[in-house]
Amino acid sequence: MNNIKLVGLALAVVMLFLTLIAPAFSDDVDKYIQGFKDENSSVLWKALCKLISMGETAVEPLIQALKDKDDNVRQETARVLGVIKDKRSVEPLILAIKDENSDVRAMVALALGEINDSRSVDPLIKALTDDDSHVRKIAAWALGELKDPKAIDPLTQALKDNDSEVRLMVTESLIEIEDVRTIVPLIQALGDRNSSIQVMAAAALGDCNDTSAVEPLIQALKDKDGLVRKKAAWALGSIKDPRAVDPLIYALADDDSSVRAEAEEAILKIGEASVDPLGRALKDDDAFVQKAAARILEKIGNVRVVETHVLKS
Asked: How far apart are the first and last CA of the chain?
């Protein structure tokens, strides 16, 4: 009986202590939130670290701070909520993605991507048409994090965005979703005017190993950018479709040595289906093509074709 009384007394003391320190703790949270207004970077950094370390206990005051009049407070509040990843903050953040300040909207989109809750998909899809290109870019990234196939069509539309950084992020997010329905938009991205987007799309199409990409990749072998041609050759080697052999043999005469090397490797990967076209290439007018064809045939193991050509010569 005495032990129970002692336990009860101890619990009463603990509860009294928690009651006494709760207002002070709340004051600390508010103090650090107000630190977001400070122009001193060290003060801002300290406020961020403190609030993040408080974790879920700071979430409710932070949610309230999303309505603060100060732009920096709302922006940094969204940043912290994205790091804490508490599901209670999802709905308030969804409301905040309509904030009048574009920097706040971008940070909110980032936070929603970090939290990774399916409720964020529709608001982030809407953010793909935001007036600010940075917001659109972060929204595209967040949708890639969420990996919801519902975003495929809106992301496909976003491939027409005027900003190349947005289109690059859209392409990356389509790849992240890992759905067969992304192949068509990735083929579309292969024809983008930005070479970084083309290279990324070509690499993804090679990884997908879908033969519907063969003809577009063959066209990409003629691109003006050497990196695009090189990655297209690599992708065709990954897919291993015999339709690519003749275009790859043509690429053996490319002005770029790295493209020639990649085309050679691709033909090797395709293997036996390359033998007859390579035999014909032994008579090509271009010395690079002749030597490469002979080298590939020897590696494939069809020395006979090379010897036959030498005898006929």
From this structure: 110
Query: Residue with structure tokens 């994090």?
Result: 145
Tokens of 286: 């271009």
> What contacts 24+ positions apart, CB below 8 Å, involve 301-310?
302/275, 302/278, 305/275, 305/278, 305/279, 306/282, 308/279, 309/279, 309/282, 309/283
Which residue pairs from 111-114 have beta carbons closer than 8 angstroms and sit at least 24 positions apart in sequence? 111/78, 111/79, 111/81, 111/82, 112/82, 112/142, 113/82, 113/138, 113/141, 113/142, 113/143, 113/144, 113/145, 113/146, 114/82, 114/83, 114/85, 114/145
Give the model's pLDDT for residue 7: 40
- Burial (CB count <10 Å: 0-12, 13-18, 19+), residue 23: exposed
Express each pLDDT in 148-169 by its tens digit: 999 999 999 999 999 999 999 9
**Could you report the per-residue pLDDT of 53-103, keeping only the tens digit for each?**
888 999 999 999 999 999 999 999 999 999 999 999 999 999 999 999 999
pTM: 0.84
